[in-house]
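Review form for a predicted model. The reviewer records the input and the model, then writes brief findings.
Reviewer: anonymous (R2)
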Amino acid sequence: MKVLIIYYSTYGNVYKMAKLVAEGVKEVKGAEPVIRTVRELIPENVIESREDMKAGKEMQKDVPLVTLEDFKEAGAIAFGTPTRFGNVSAQLKNQIDQLTSLWLAGELEGKPAGIFVSTASLHGGQETTILTLMGPLLHLGMILVGVPYSVKELFSTQGGGSPYGPGHIAGVDSKREIDQQEATICRALGRRLADVGLGLQKK
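Model under review:
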């Protein structure tokens, strides 16, 4: 079963989280992670004027853009985004807005979905971003999956992560590395999506 991990990342932090979610998927027998990104909406001249943005794009240059076929083939889907004023990034939302044909056909109904986010600051909107993104996923008929408190790192994280989904605090310069607890919570989401997706397929 394929687990689609679709994300948008400006500086590379959400991309790094996507790879950790993929590691969790790989721990589940019968599950295969598929990492895809979405089309950039920031003008090229803006990106070229910023060394940090250019470095982020270089880091992800080999990641393919997601297709509708990727969504169809997936047995479960993880959505990754930075927060934008407490909400999902325009780039990821733009891709979700293009899923009308799959929505009309019921292609995504019954598929497990999880969300992971990155913010610059501790109170930068991780939970509001996940909660607001849950609405479109419910409209698509997906089954929301979070991270349960059996993942003990939720009790001790000093960075990101909540029962709603993995989180990462990147810092105001976007250079803070993902810490061990944040990474563990990312892997936990990947495992849970794979487990739930495989369980639903067996039924």
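Findings: The chain has a mean pLDDT of 96.
Further findings: The first strand starts at residue 2 and ends at 7.
Recommendation: see findings above.
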